[in-house]
Amino acid sequence: MAILSFEGLVRALPTQKNGILFSDVSAIVETPVTIALIGTSGQGKTSLLRLLSLLDEPEEGELWLQNRSFRDWSPTEWRKHVVYVAQHAVMLQGTIEDNLRAASRIHRVPFDQGRAEFLMASLGLEHLGWGKNAGDLSGGEKQRIALIRALMLNAPVLLLDEVTASLDQNSKHAVEELLTDLHTQEGVTMIWITHDIQQAQAISQRVWFMAEGTLLEDTSSDSFFKQPKTSAALRYLQLREEGNY
Ligand SMILES: Nc1ncnc2c1ncn2[C@@H]1O[C@H](COP(=O)(O)OP(=O)(O)OP(=O)(O)O)[C@@H](O)[C@H]1O
């Protein structure tokens, strides 16, 4: 049984040239894997993750979670399994603890205090008092709390949208290590948007490269970074090597 699959996805947007952001987007995730979702700005990476988490519906195409069509899932149930972590962290009103408990409150599952403490320590946040107002945190602290809030769901699929964008090097590496461990130890699948090629290489087993209005390459990271199949991907990698992006 596939974990997640989709076929012929189309995202139409009136703001685009011919009204279509991307089309014919298909892939299958059969076993737990770490995927870097890359491509130049505006290709539709965030829009694809929004479809995969049912925050938006595709104009055409089909999506399956555990071989069941998205039409047969309630969006809430789907999002217990496929969790989207947005680029710009938004804190829920209240304290850090209110944010950490959000998943258990919304989905009516017991709160796992030990896991929350472990995740906070893993991301260097053990010094923060849980009674602190979440709105007062720094941008980097908010980003990590938002990630931990999502991880408290224990979802098998994580959709990560530039989740280290506002972090310093140490915190960035802590996030990469934690998420890689969750993949290895708990079999979590990650689809991770990043503009950082070093990060993409470090965290991914597979690459989804978006260009030319579609998912142009779906291949192992090793072969993508050694020898991409398309000229668009080659150009993308060359520009990054030269620092011109
Ligand atoms: N709801 C919307 N309404 C209108 N235009 C939108 C909407 N969502 C996305 N777009 C447009 O679609 C294009 C793709 O956006 P998207 O954020 O998916 O790209 P991206 O590849 O993630 O880009 P980046 O790497 O810059 O984050 C952009 O031009 C964006 O302005």
TrEMBL record:
InterPro entries referenced in this protein's UniProt entry, alphabetically: AAA+_ATPase (IPR003593), ABC_transporter-like_ATP-bd (IPR003439), ABC_transporter-like_CS (IPR017871), P-loop_NTPase (IPR027417)
Sorted UniProt keywords: ATP-binding, Nucleotide-binding, Transport
Domain of life: Bacteria
UniProt-listed SUPFAM superfamilies: P-loop containing nucleoside triphosphate hydrolases
Keyword Nucleotide-binding: yes
An MF annotation (GO) of this entry: ATP binding
Domain ABC transporter: 4-237
Record protein name field: ATP-binding cassette domain-containing protein
